[in-house]
Specification:
By secondary structure, the protein is α+β, with helices and mostly antiparallel strands. The protein has two domains: about 130 residues, Hypothetical protein ph0010, domain 1 (Glycoprotein, Type 4 Pilin); about 110 residues, no CATH class. The radius of gyration is 19 Å and the shape is elongated. The protein starts with 14 loop residues before the first helix and ends with a helix. The N terminus is likely disordered.
Length: about 260
């Protein structure tokens, strides 16, 4: 299914969204000690495509606020999964907090012992637009969502055409990228992949490097040429993102 955004009024992600995600996984890890959480925010009428990201922090930065630049070591990705289908906010956060914590196939499920070392990021996706071409987006502003023909079904002339090879040596998916829920609407004829807006500048990529990496992430393992890049369907989008650490969640919960 292509990305959708049924909410026309922009709304920033809130710290309470992260706190709700923490409460969800606390309950799943220890349901006898932690009751089924209820959201502390009003989500009536709010529907968003969204991603939930879990990072694990070094011991020296665990108790420090996420917003403190001095305490901002490079976190290690622990899980990141989302959806381009617009969900009611609380429902989507609960579902993808759990999926990204316990069902991201790249990692073992998050454990109780890891909770104090976790940072949660919530990204609410907005402003989806079709790009005029594969370069019609801005690094640091937009995320990209690419569609390309499955090489098993695409015309051989396209897959063999062009004369400009990828110069990027970092075309494979980096450790900090996010997975997303793929729908059956994409079908076997189309490969898809996305990078959230913050991933591309974090990696230091140019637009071409990001596009080439997204193609590899989507499963394209052939020769990347300029003709193939031009054949891509690319959608750009923006993201409202908030991050909070487990210690901040505990302090917030104690103040309720």
């Amino acid at each position: 299914m292509a990305p959708s955004n049924s909410n026309n009024s922009p709304s920033a992600a809130l710290p309470e969204h992260c706190y709700y995600c923490f409460a969800v996984i606390e309950h799943e890890l220890n349901p006898t000690s932690h009751p089924t959480p209820t959201p502390s925010f009003d989500d009536e009428g709010q529907e968003y495509p969204l991603f939930v990201t879990w990072n694990i922090l070094t011991h020296s930065s665990v108790g420090k606020p996420a917003c403190s630049p001095a305490s901002r070591p490079t976190p290690r990705l622990r899980g990141c999964i989302g959806t381009f289908e617009a969900y009611p906010l609380a429902q989507g956060l609960a579902e993808y907090a759990s999926i990204s914590a316990f069902k991201d196939g790249r990692f073992p499920a998050i454990t109780q012992a890891e909770l104090p070392h976790l940072e949660c990021g919530v990204s609410l996706l907005t402003g989806f637009e079709e790009c005029d071409d594969y370069l019609d987006w801005q690094v640091g502003t937009h995320g990209i969502y690419i569609h390309l023909p499955n090489p098993a079904l695409a015309p051989k002339s396209l897959l063999a055409g062009g004369n400009q090879d990828s110069a990027s040596s970092r075309s494979s998916t980096p450790a900090v990228t996010c997975r997303f829920a793929r729908s059956e609407a994409s079908g076997p004829a189309v490969l898809t992949a996305t990078y959230l807006p913050d991933v591309i500048p974090d990696q230091g990529w140019t637009k071409v490097e990001a596009i080439d990496s997204a193609m590899r992430k989507a499963g394209f393992d052939g020769k990347i040429t300029e003709d193939i890049r031009r054949s891509l369907r690319v959608r750009r989008y923006r993201s409202d993102k908030v991050e909070r650490r487990y210690a901040e969640y505990v302090a917030w919960k104690q103040g309720q």
